[in-house]
Amino acid sequence: MRKINMLIIIALVSSFLLPFAVAQEKFNLEYKFQEGQTRYMLFITQGQVNIELPQSVQEGAMPMSFPLIMAMSLSMKTLKVYSDGAADVEIRLVDGKMYMMGQEISMLQQQGATQPIRIRMGKKGNLIKLLTPINIPQGNPFMGTINPDMLVQNFSRLTVLPQEEVGVGDKWEQKIDTEIPNLGKLNLLQKMTFTSVEKIGDVNCAKISIEIPPSTFQFNIPMGPPTQGQEPPTLPLNGKLEMKGDMVFDPQNGYMVSQSGTLKMLINVTMPAGGQVGAPSSLSTNIDMKFKVTTMDKKPTLPTPTQIQQQFQPQQESQA
Prior knowledge:
The protein is mainly beta. A hairpin with a 5-residue loop joins β5 (about 115-120) and β6. Strands 1, 2, 3, 4, 5, 6, 7, 8, 9, 10, 11 and 12 form a 12-stranded antiparallel beta sheet that branches. About 15% of the residues lie in helices and about 50% in strands.
């Protein structure tokens, strides 16, 4: 009887200490690339777009407010792994559809959509280098003097994953306050918190909350390349964005399991006045959306708009 009582006491003590032990566990969060491995990412969104147009062009224009639903699948194949943990990765759009204003739009039919992009990615998830040149279509009046490599350089340190080991309750953040050559300014702050350990199968995964408080951007989009030594006209664009969400990361196998959240964005565009008279016109676009990203080993089937809407229903509604 004493042995049985002792076993009961040990079991009770163990059940009390186990959550505490898991909470104190530290994790080294980094991607573990395997040469030749292909993973797929399913990205779905449901949102609302609201546009404020100048009074002079409101008649006959598109609806001022409309829902936007999107589903997209990407493949990510690891081509080469380096000694420091970085890897060359090929990203390809497998399938994608947008649903807006009663229309279904195939992303695969868009120019250049089927061309793969190769990047060099660090073990912390940061973009190190573009391996595939980004060609701007001829005749495109925008982005005429934007250097993609300079954009990569400005964002190469941006990652959710921390450099040091972390455990439940740990917080870290990253700030980008930069001037992007030939484009403009971006002020961005990412705040991360290790909120809990989530067991998936037999693996303890890290659940991380991610927040981007209202952050501002101010760009002057070039409307063509320089001509005869003169800079091209620009399209002033400014706004702000904010995001809240959660990411689940598998530290044992080294990949992001899922991420979900909400994104809000306000974009203001000022258009130069035409001719010799008239004041510049402007328009504002508000985008409010929910999103989910899921990583899987097999090519996913795109969900229908109804299935996407069901995934974003509040938990209490889905159980009703």
